[in-house]
Structure formats: C-alpha cells, structure tokens
Write a structure and sequence with these properties.
- This protein has 189 residues and is an all-alpha fold.
- It has one domain (3-188).
- The chain contains 8 helices and no strands.
- It has helices at 3-14, 20-48, 52-57, 63-72, 75-88, 91-107, 140-161, 165-188.
- Helix 1 (3-14) packs antiparallel against helix 2 and helix 2 runs antiparallel to helix 4.
- The longest helix has 29 residues, at 20-48.
- The chain is globular, with a radius of gyration of 17 Å.
C-alpha cells in the first residue's frame, strides 16, 4: 500500500477520538515500517544525487537495504512489542505497535517482487505475492482503486468520528496524497 493509505488505515483502526497522543502514536506506528525507506531514498536522491534507477532497481533490493527493512518490517519484533504494550495496558503503545502490525499485514499480500523480509530474525525469506499495489502487470489496476476507495471511506469515517481539526485536516491531506499516489502509480507502471 501507499504510505498515506497506511496512515489513514492506522488512524482509523487505532486512533481514539479526543486522545491526541494516541492518534499521534497510530500515525507514527503506521509510518515507522516505511521510515527507513524514506530516509535511505531521500539520502541517495536528495543528498548524494544517486540516479533514481540505481536507487529503485539496485539499492532497494540490495542485501544491506533488506537487512534494514527486515528489522522495521518484522512481524516478530512488532508482535513482541504489541504483546508488551497489551501487558502494560499502555494506550499509546498499543496504538503505535498495532498500527505498525496493521501496516505489515496490509503490505504482506500487496508486494509482488518488491516485498521485504517480514519474519526476521528467524528468516530473511520474502513472500512474493501474486498481486501488487503499484504494478499493473500484477493487478494494481484493480488494487489501486480499491485502496483509494477504502481510504476515502475511512477518511469520511475519521471526519465524523474525530472532532480535532488537526486530525480532520491531516486525514484530508493524506487522502489527497493517496489519490495522487495511486493514480500516479497506475499511469507510470
């Protein structure tokens, strides 16, 4: 899924009205599994001036990058953290770790040849899904619109459910980003 959709889904699933700290934790948990990607891509494209083809066709699939992705995309690590959050009965920690697990669960079936190792430290195995959220050759032509439709419905629900203006505005901005991202991927690929 596109990162804006992850943020929308995470807030809808784990955010609590009138609990800004929990909403922020849900946002953070939804973002953390993609954060290393943004940092590494940003560093290479923005600072080092690395050619995008090298970044997305070589570095992304390199052993070094996959070792980093294995840590922040591990069902096992996030699952342990979620269990600890439940045991401690910490609302913000449950939102953070639950949203991260939701992110991983939604990514797992939607990455064809660009998945990440999600069972580290047990294995570096990567599931190759028959469908992709971005590649039309693997069904993005129907996954993308479903993702956009679900995101739109969840943003409408967030607007009804949450009274805080900053959450409503953030959700609308994320939806605009999601609609742009899903449209761009369908046309590029």
């Amino acid at each position: 899924m596109n990162t804006p959709a992850h943020l929308i889904f995470g807030l809808a699933a784990f955010g609590k009205p009138d609990h800004g700290k929990i909403a922020l934790a849900a946002f953070a948990g939804s973002l953390i599994p993609d954060l290393s990607l943004y940092i590494m891509v940003g560093w290479h494209l923005g600072i080092l001036g690395t050619d995008p083809q090298i970044v997305f066709r070589e570095l992304y699939y390199s052993d070094a990058w996959m070792r980093i992705f294995a840590i922040d995309n591990s069902f096992l690590l996030w699952g342990l953290a979620f269990a600890l959050a439940l045991w401690l009965k910490s609302g913000w920690a449950i939102a953070l770790t639950g949203a991260a697990l939701l992110h991983l669960a939604l990514d797992f079936p939607l990455h064809h040849d660009d998945g990440r190792p999600q069972f580290w430290p047990l294995t570096m195995w990567i599931f190759e899904s028959p469908v992709s959220y971005w590649d039309n050759r693997q069904g993005a032509w129907w996954i993308g619109p479903l993702e956009a439709l679900a995101s739109t419905a969840l943003v409408a629900w967030i607007i009804v459910r949450f009274r805080q203006l900053w959450i409503r505005v953030t959700a609308i901005v994320l939806l605009a980003m999601e609609l742009m991202a899903s449209g761009i991927w369908r046309f590029i690929f």
